[in-house]
Fold:
Amino acid sequence: MGQGTMHTDVFVAGAGPAGLAAAIATRQKGLRVVVADSALPPIDKACGEGLMPDGFAALSKLGVKVGCNQAVRFRGIRFVKGEDSVAAAFPNGCGLGIRRTTLHEVLVERAAEAGVSLLWGTTLLGISPLRMSRRSFVAWER
Structure:
């Protein structure tokens, strides 16, 4: 297992959808970003199969492109419990039904395009500030 250090402006621990979205948005501001996760992509989890309209709009602002064959748009939502149900259409925009692994793949692709440094299968050993700079460094091990 190799060890190393890396200088960065921003370090993100965890490369799930939220961590990758934060990294892409930060990189769009011109900062150097490193993301580390102990897992290997695509990261799957029993949640995240649908994005509400604001989440779908946020993906677009990050430059994340989802192909027509990768997801299904939906215009509202319905909750059912027993014989009771409630439904509503979204007032603005549409949601996106997308498999978690597909969402993760498109986020990883966009993060790499944006210049985010991705450290997969990585255990974080520590983060320390440099004395003469606002920048910090990250120690890691694979």
User: Anything to note?
Assistant: The longest strand covers residues 123-129. The chain has one domain: 3-141. The two ends are 5 Å apart (CA to CA). The chain has a mean pLDDT of 86.
